[in-house]
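A quick aside before the break. I want you to see a complete sequence-to-structure record at least once, exactly as it would be stored in a machine-readable document. Don't worry about memorizing anything.
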Amino acid sequence: MNDGRIFREAWIDGVNKHYPGEPKPGYVTPWDETPEWERDAAAAVCGQVRDFIAVSGGHAARLTREQKGRFVAICWTAQMFRHFEDPKPGYVADWSDLPVWQRETDADIFERIEGTV
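That is the input. The structure line, written in tokens, reads:
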């Protein structure tokens, strides 16, 4: 499975688990229907998480869930600035401004990737 798909499937699973109520359809769009820019961003962030885990010598496992989620969130923010000249504020919100469901989903994403390393 490619890095982008791993990220996207972890995102969808996290949204389904943590989102309060019915998520927006775009939040759970399957990989094959995901826009190209979003596939590229997902693959890039997955790669950054893998690299981070590798350069930590396995010690990234000692990070808290919040630290893991923050890392995913900041990597995603960088991708939004890469792909959009003027991204929507929600795409580049700081960790403290993200809803709890999104923070939990980002931590889940890190842990899913971690499980593949």
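Two observations worth writing down. Helices lie at 3-18, 36-55, 65-83, 100-114. The chain has a mean pLDDT of 95. We'll return to this after the break.
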